[in-house]
Specification:
Elements lengths: L5 H10 L5 E4 L3 H12 L4 E5 L14 E3 L4 H5 L6 H12 L5 H21 L6 E2 L9 E3 L2 H14 L3 E4 L2 E8 L2 E9 L2 E6 L2 E4 L8 H7 L17 H8 L37 E3 L13 H9 L7 E3 L2 H4 L11 H6 L9 H8 L3 H11 L1
Helix pairs in contact: 2-6, 4-5, 12-13
């Protein structure tokens, strides 16, 4: 892995033999692609435009849906790929591409075992919204990235940081590499195959306005590098965008950039909290999938909401699952606390009478 100066990076990339596989991005997708290719004997080069790895993976809650795992068996949970498929299709309300769902369900258990063999560990298993059994497996996302990076290095994968890919090189209708920018200088990096694993575009307002205008008022989270680089490169090379109407916002994200919050947010609504708008009113069934909750929240005035909960919900705190780590947010001052609903209403700026009526009605 290299974080060396731009001059030596450029010289090294120019002088080196073209790799069999060039991967753009060091999130989970990119690093998994790199490791898998290296395990099959390919020479692999990974480029990351930022100075550090992880992308949005490092900011995620670290939850993955698997069926038939060791952790489930140990807990006496009976699950199957067929049950997982049925739950996904039900959540998708008939809009899913069933061929993609089938691939996911067929390969998910093999992928889980492969990741565990690489050293990724899973802890708490719980039932997320839309799951008929507990199958959300938690892991520390930053630790997972470190594990994948270490394994990639052991397999001889070269990883270069601080290099932005700006254009796919296309010859005779085939992608043969990428054009990269290193401190203002353009360098061609050739490869037999190119993997675009650059993430989304939540940090690119222009793309949001063009392709998902319904998300412009959402909180623009995700990694700082989520600017749609790979999507734009593919688009310019002749590919197209699809499924953009189905891009959804995730409920529960902290609305301000703050060093105390990693970006995962909390979902206290799944542990007993009530979601209220700035009128102090409940506006949604909190048991819905978090993307549906996000849609409902965006429809509220100000496009924000509060999750209001009591000590009973607080006691359901789970430090091993970031979205349920309420005590951690309390310790860093990210939670507003009060002894009465009247006091809380004053703190969060909602009408006290409406908040009291909402909570009493919810209980």
């Amino acid at each position: 892995m290299s974080r060396s100066d731009a001059g030596s990076q450029g010289a090294r990339l120019r002088a080196g033999e073209p790799p069999d596989v060039l991967v753009l991005g060091t999130g989970q997708a990119g690093l998994c692609a790199a490791v898998a290719a290296a395990q099959r004997g390919a020479s692999v080069l990974v480029l990351e435009k930022l100075a550090f790895p992880g992308g949005s993976t490092s900011m995620s809650s670290g939850l993955s849906a698997y069926a038939g795992t060791d952790e489930q068996v140990a807990l006496g949970i009976h699950d199957s790929a067929e049950s997982l498929r049925a739950d996904i299709l039900a959540t998708g309300q008939g809009r899913c591409d069933e061929s993609l769902v089938d691939v996911y369900c067929r390969e998910q258990l093999t992928t889980y075992r492969w990741l565990k063999d690489l050293g990724v560990t899973y802890g708490h298993v719980h039932a997320g919204s839309g799951q008929s059994v507990a199958r959300s497996h938690s892991t520390d996302p930053s630790r997972m990235i470190d594990t994948l990076l270490r394994r990639a290095e052991e397999l001889g994968v070269s990883v270069e940081f601080g290099i932005r890919a700006v254009q796919l090189l296309v010859e005779a209708e085939a992608v043969v590499g990428v054009l990269c920018e290193i401190s203002g200088a353009m360098v061609e990096v050739r490869a037999s195959s190119v993997v675009l694993a650059t993430g989304g575009f939540s940090r690119n307002l222009e793309l949001l306005e063009r392709f998902v205008p319904h998300m412009v008022n959402a909180i623009h989270g995700g990694a700082v590098g989520s600017e749609g680089d790979g999507l734009l490169m593919g688009w310019k090379a002749g590919a197209d965008f699809r499924d953009t109407p189905y891009v959804k916002g995730t409920f529960g994200i902290y609305p301000h950039d703050d060093p105390r919050e990693s970006g995962t947010g909390i979902l206290a609504v799944y542990k007993g909290a009530v979601a209220v708008n700035f009128s102090g009113r409940r506006f949604v069934d909190e048991s819905l999938p978090y993307k549906a909750l996000g849609d409902a929240c965006l429809a509220q005035e100000g496009h924000l909401a509060w999750q209001v909960f009591d000590q009973q919900t607080m006691d359901r705190d789970d430090p091993d699952v970031h979205i349920y780590w309420f005590s951690g947010r309390l310790a860093t001052g990210l939670l507003e606390t009060a002894d009465t609903l009247e006091e809380l209403a004053d703190k969060i700026g909602v009408p006290a009478d409406e908040l009291i009526r909402t909570v009493e009605g919810y209980n």
